[in-house]
Amino acid sequence: MTRAPGQWTADNETRPAPAPLDRVQALVNTVDIEIAQDRLARVDDARPWLIQQHLLGGDAPLTEADLAGLREIREALRALLVHNTGGAPPGGRDLTVLRQVADAGSARAVIDDDGHVQLRAVGGSMLERLAELLVIIRDAQRDGSWSRLKACANDDCRWVFWDQSRNRGGSWCDMAVCGNRLKNRDFRARHHAER
Ligand SMILES: [Zn+2]
């Protein structure tokens, strides 16, 4: 599929997670591995998106090094979601990266107009704002919705999708694309093995 400049695969998410977990999905889906399109590759692309996602204060700096760190954080989050699909648990490096995020940020309670208590990040830097995603993950782990957020089991894809199936058994971002491709590959492998 070709798309116009400025168009990103995640702008038309076909299996979106409910808010606020969609913020985690949005961050991890900033890269489309199959077409090598990465919204976090360049400061010019990343900055407006991060501000819109409340992951960067409007006047906070954003360097190439910040972006490189964020891409590493993104992949550490993806490792958690691969585990949700039945893959290996997150590795030591992934946990170290996520613990650095936890150590860098803090959250404070705010009361919204309906009287609901929200936890908001303190500070405007990217690393500080990421604390909000940790709060969202923590809430989702508590209410059980976390296990429905998954990374596609196709290693060449790893797109993050919301698994709405009753038994939470979904493994593919798109059964017609990734599911069938893997099935065909397995079939071919078996076929060759039998010959
Ligand atoms: Zn997929």
Automatic annotation (TrEMBL):
- Residue ranges annotated as coiled coil are none
Q: Which InterPro entries match?
A: ABATE (IPR010852), ABATE_dom_sf (IPR023286), Znf_CGNR (IPR021005)
Judging by the UniProt lineage, the source's domain of life is: Bacteria
The Zinc finger CGNR domain covers: 148-191
The protein's matches in SUPFAM superfamilies, at most eight in alphabetical order, are given as: Jann2411-like
Instruction: Write down the Gene3D superfamilies for this protein, in alphabetical order.
Output: Jann2411-like domain (1.10.3300.10)
One protein family per Pfam: zf-CGNR
State the protein's name: Zinc finger CGNR domain-containing protein
Q: Which organism is it from?
A: Mycolicibacterium litorale
